[in-house]
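We store sequence, tokenised fold; for instance:
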Amino acid sequence: MTIEIQPLRILQDNYTFLLIDNSNNQAAIIDPGSAGPVIDALKSKNMPLSHILLTHHHYDHSGGVKELKQLYPQAKVAIHQADAGRLKDACDLKLSEGDLIDFGTASIKVLHLPCHTRGHVAFQIEESLFTGDTLFNAGCGKFFEGTATEMLKNLQRLKTLPKTTQIYCGHEYTVENLEHAFQADPSNTMLNERFHQAKVAQAQSSTLVPSLLAIELATNQFLRLDDITLQKQLKTDNELDTLIALYWIFYRETPAR
């Protein structure tokens, strides 16, 4: 990989990601919910900021935009066109599905994944995918503005990516998600192993991102909706109903179909 990725923990449980192209002395940030840690990281590397990339408009992913833009006015704020009008700050790039953003020696591909918000996107850079609040370690995001059918389509799409894809999610919910997952599939030994590994990492304050897509395919229930054993546990017989049943276990809500 030509791009260096530095995860930064911000707010209560958010991740923001600093992208660095050392060959071009260029940096970008994904989902800066707070500006302070980003500014500190940029100053420590003595680098300018060229892009502020937002997976969606929610304030815990965009709250640092104004301060960063004031300090780095050349940085281009990019967000999907469906979320642009709901961003408190002006944007420079209104994104659409399949757009490519030039960053240093790399191209950043935009994947439109509407559900959490209408304009939610993921950013794909080489073998890394920044999923915001669509896909988490061992979980998925709330369907605030969409339906279970839309999320199912998103999840099915993500499953087609190479298993070597590194997943950088927007929140640290790993241990909590694995606890919920046990309720749905208590006999899954891989879940048990991942849960204990995550507990150890959490106790050591280790960063649990990125996760490998291959691991998510094996232990993230939301990517195993077609698994017969899981369907039997949840008394369902299709992916959509399995997704809705899982959503209830995780969030105690029934989403629109």
Residues 28 and 51 are 5 Å apart (CA to CA). The mean pLDDT is 95. Residues 189-203 form the longest helix (15 residues).
